[in-house]
Amino acid sequence: MRCLLHLRLVCFFILLFNTFFAPSLALAQRANGLVVSDSPLATKAGMEMLGRGGNAIDAAIATAYALAVVDQASSGIGGGGFMVIYETKDRRAHALDFRETAPEGVRKELYVKDGRPVPSLSLTGALAVAVPGEVAGLAQAHRRFGSMPMQVLMAPAIRLASNGFPLDATLRYAIDRQQGSIKKFPDLGRIYMPNDEVPAEGELIRQPELGETLKAIASQGANAFYQGWIADAIVETIKREGGVLNSEDLKNYRPVWREPLIGNYRQRTVISMPPPSSGGVAILQMLKVLEGYQLSDLAHNSATYLHLITEAMKHAFADRAQYLGDPDFVKTPVSLLTSKDYGRWIRGRISAAKTHPTRYYGLVNFKPELGGTTHFSVIDRFGNAVACTVSVNTRFGSKLLVPNTGIVLNNEMDDFAIHSTGNVYGLVGNEANSLQPRKRPLSSMSPTIILQGDRPEVVVGGAGGPRIISATLQTILNVLDYRMPVAKAVEAPRVHHQWLPDQLNVENDVAVETKRSLERRGHAVRERGVLGVVQAITNGQDGVKGAADPRKEERARSE
Ligand code: GLY
Fold first, then answer.
1. Which residues does the annotation mark as catalytic?
2. Which of 75, 392, 393, 413 most suits a substitution to test ligand 1, by most atoms within 8 Å of the C-beta?
3. What is the rounded CA–CA span in Å between residue 559 and residue 2?
4. Distance CA 504, CA 423 (A)
5. 366 and 383 inside one domain
6. Residues in contact with 350: Cβ distance below 8 Å, sequence separation at least 6, in sequence order
7. Which of 486, 533, 529 is CA-nearest to residue 510?
8. How many Å lie between the centroid of ligand 1 and the Cα of residue 100?
9. Residue 279 resides in a domain
């Protein structure tokens, strides 16, 4: 089942031609490079640019804009993201932060009523919206690395918005799950439930207003979004709905080039996203711990293996909660957390036979010597690579669709540690990720590129809140330690532990005896359907191969 669904999702062009025994054409497509996203239409947009001679950044921009139309539940121009780039010519890595920022007028008290925290306020409606970064981020990537005109790159997205696209199972599932909220927000309802009911799979979704918005951005640049009629429409909607984001917030938004996080694992170079992503730090920290074990001697997904990686996750997520936040506001001990010494110290605290209470985990115990999002991966014929994760946070973000623009606004404010009870993902935090004007909320998005020598060997990342971190980690281990082909590495059952709540989430396909064995070590095992959605490309002896996670579509079809 998974295999069949997987075939539907992975690189639309290549598989289509392979299916019809046209290997030479398939090879030509491969020779141009590869895009893997979780939408065949978005993949097609990116592949079109590679086929026309564009580079990985061109393809990434076309893919991101197409995703912003065909899956507004996960990402879009009302959201933001991170992009990690490896430029083969200069052998240089770059990390672009176009994460949303908190509006200037925001205060913690706005999320409290009658002395009580109201978690829904950072999730739905105008107070949930942080200043969107995607349009500025993609423009910035284009200015520095793009080789094709923006109008060409945005043309597929404009076509999809203006002419419409057939509703697929995953977007239909998102609409179905959000029916209640969509009905409360008539602007969103006009597009996604026009007759007050969930449209059937295959029905055409048309977004002419979004098409006009995209045309304005394509012809006038990012300023068309942050100033002028689009910005006015956003501000008017926010004001009408009781929010604080204003025109100055939009005008002042800037993406930031950050120093990429670079470490190593088993003779490879790992390049990932630094804070305000927590994903890169957590993944490097866990790899440093796990490097000390000969994982390939342990059976894949055996209880011993899953226990080890779970313990690494518990340490990493404890530190995430304690120390990580926007580096423009707080000092983040990144080099310590990702150091060899700290990894060794954590290994010394891991007991093979049992897990420990939550207070046992994290740097606080270290007396030094001393993780609605979507990810896509691209590799081009020059050897450039892009790992990009974009988000509006949970499905359809704040549920606010700005009239006349088609823009769905994010709800990334919920990624701040506003309430001690944790956010929608149960993630807790402290001062480091506290809510402050102009600050960027901590993210789990983990776009990652792994080099062998100078060659991008793995381009990977995922969606699913904190599960992005554990899912990306396990995919990396599956490829590098267990030598799995990329499709198998993405499909293999996963586990997730985020320190608090103290639960070991285990996908249903993990063997029953393994789950019992984990329980005997003291883990509170909870069975889960889907733990993250990963898009990965590998570039090894067998050439460039990609895999889009079948989980997203599988979940949509099975529920
Ligand atoms: N909004 C999900 C994340 O950034 O982690």
1. 373
2. 393
3. 15
4. 18
5. no
6. 289, 308, 311, 312
7. 529
8. 10
9. yes
Q: Where are the beta strands (DSSP E) in 355-404?
A: 373-380, 385-391, 401-402
Tens digit of each residue's pLDDT (9 = 90 or more) over 181-210: 999 999 999 999 999 999 999 999 999 999
pLDDT at 429: 81
Is residue 485 in some structural domain? yes
- Domain assignment present for residue 202? The answer is yes
Q: Which domain holds residue 152?
A: 2-257+375-433
Quick one: 513 and 365 in the same domain? yes
Per-residue burial over 253-290, b = 16 or more CB atoms within 10 Å of its CB, e = otherwise = bebbebebbbbebeebbbbbbbbbbbbbbbbbbbbbbb
Residues 129 and 91 in one domain: yes
CATH number, residue 327: 1.10.246.130
What per-residue confidence (pLDDT) applies to 112? 94
Query: What span, in angstroms and rounded, lies between the C-alpha atoms of 452 and 26?
Result: 26
Instruction: Establish whether the linkage from the previous residue to 194 is cis, with ω within 30° of 0.
Output: no
The residues lining ligand 1, judged by C-beta closer than 6 Å to any ligand atom, are: 373, 391, 393, 412, 415, 443-445, 465
Number of domains making up the chain: 2
Q: Does residue 547 fall inside a structural domain?
A: no
